[in-house]
Amino acid sequence: MDFKGSDTLPGPRTEDHLPHTAQAAVKIVIVGGFGVGKTTMVGSVSEIRPLTTEETMTQAGIGVDDDYGSESKTATTVAMDFGRISITEKLVLYLFGTPGQERFWFLWNGLFEGALGAVVLVDTRRLEVSFDVMGRLEERGVPFVVAVNSFPDAPRYPIEELRTALDLSPDIPIIECDVRRRASSKDVLMTLMGFLHSLAMSGALT
What we know:
8 strands; alpha/beta; Rossmann fold; about 25% helix; single chain; about 20% strand; two-stranded antiparallel sheet
């Protein structure tokens, strides 16, 4: 479309406008290793057209990126994913999905700035990746919940076994989900909001 000579430029779509009833906005980050479903979660739950920064994977990542369990992926997030969801008429969540490959983790610090909480997406085929992810959140003091994404070929374990394997304290919620489904992704976010509310009521969240 040619806008030459026009005094106006196209603005955001009507459906992308912030609801006029919104009174509070909260930044949430969705983190995890490569291929755990961060982009899918943002896309499935966002009420606006999500912003993604996916690029085609090249041979430069061979031997550098850990793609176990995600060998069929042809694109990867190189900066962030962004979406928005209204939890109530007054409360809006801004969702920021982080890049998964370790070579892009230097971008995480900027994405963590101002975040009230986080969702750690976990793939049971690669639990070991989650330790560094959770460690970075703990270093920054960002409260988080753990969401176990249900991949068809991934082993299933009882929640308490996963809690032990991930060395999670009893107070950190852990929930199973299917990030392809909007309702399931929203359940994860509601779990996080409930956790943050309980921390605020106890004085642990400042």
